[in-house]
């Protein structure tokens, strides 16, 4: 299980301002900090307010790679921006993301093949995000079939059941857990699973407690990766502990320290 650092996102005021001023220092400070916290990838998202997504994504990739050699997770709904980023990524990247819709899947899986990138497939389509696990799993199956038709290996396909804030969509919580378990049954080998962890707590009180608890629950249901606040040390300890309790790591008295090691060594060797 690994973490993708979420912080370089135009949703944050400091990042939006850095993009506007073309000031690389704030971006580079967050890149270094998240790398130090054990991020396995860095998410780069120009943010909804950024007009020129192509130019901004290219700039974010460039300035991040100047200080950090982690692979990048290119987060935009503008596929021209994703492609502009992929063209200059020094390491195989992750495309974030594609819904279960044609012709979007065609464009994204063709790009993934060309640039040897992994892909996050969202369990949604033209009808939006569904309420229940069954519909999410059906969409996961469509993503698996489409990826397979482009010869994308299942280890490079991450299905995202789409987490909504618990204060407005509380009944989705158990459906997410069910979806995570069922995705592992739709194909052999199965695709991987991923969530946007901080979504669970948006607009809610005591955000970090919600995120840490949801992470532990999702790990118990087989989660492989999360876009998350990697700088939350208590989150990292919770994840390490959940992994020991799920027998994914051997117990030792320093169990809470395990996570950083797992993310920086084993994960780089693609052992999850
Ligand atoms: N799935 C995938 N990718 C994703 C998401 C997902 N990328 C974006 C997002 N969801 C994950 N990243 C974030 C980043 C920040 C926040 C939530 C998710 C966040 N931001 C503060 C807020 O909205 O309250 C911003 C506060 C501020 O302005 O300082 O919570 O689900 N594949």
What layout of secondary structure does this protein have?
Blueprint: E1 2-9, H1 13-21, H2 24-36, E2 41-45, H3 53-65, E3 72-75, H4 79-88, E4 94-99, H5 104-115, E5 118-122, E6 124-125, E7 128-129, H6 133-149, E8 157-160, H7 172-183, E9 192-196, H8 207-220, E10 225-228, H9 233-245, H10 258-266
Parallel strand pairs: 1-2, 1-10, 2-3, 3-4, 4-5, 5-8, 8-9, 9-10
Antiparallel strand pairs: 6-7
The structure holds (6S)-5,6,7,8-tetrahydrofolate.
Report on this model:
The protein is an alpha/beta fold and 272 residues long. It has helices at 13-21, 24-36, 53-65, 79-88, 104-115, 133-149, 172-183, 207-220, 233-245, 258-266, and strands at residues 2-9, 41-45, 72-75, 94-99, 118-122, 124-125, 128-129, 157-160, 192-196, 225-228. The strands form 2 sheets. The protein has an 8-stranded parallel β-barrel, surrounded by 5 helices. Strands 6-7 form a two-stranded antiparallel ribbon. It starts with a strand and ends in a 6-residue tail after the last helix.
Summarize the structure.
The protein is an alpha/beta fold and 272 residues long. It is built from ten helices and ten strands.
Rg calc: 18 Å
**Runs with pLDDT <50, length 5+?**
264-272
- The largest beta-sheet arranges its strands as 1-2-3-4-5-8-9-10
CATH hierarchy class name: Alpha Beta
- H/E series, N to C? EHHEHEHEHEEEHEHEHEHH
Based on secondary structure, the structural category is alpha/beta
CATH superfamily descriptor: Dihydropteroate synthase-like
Helical stretch tally: 10
What's the structural domain tally? 1
Helix content: 40-55%
Mean pLDDT across all amino acids: 95
Distance between the termini: 6 Å
* Shape descriptor: globular
Assign the CATH topology: TIM Barrel
CATH architecture: Alpha-Beta Barrel
Q: In this structure, how is the largest beta sheet organized? A: 8 strands, parallel, barrel
Number of strands: 10
Provide the list of bound ligands, each named once: (6S)-5,6,7,8-tetrahydrofolate
Strand content: 15-25%
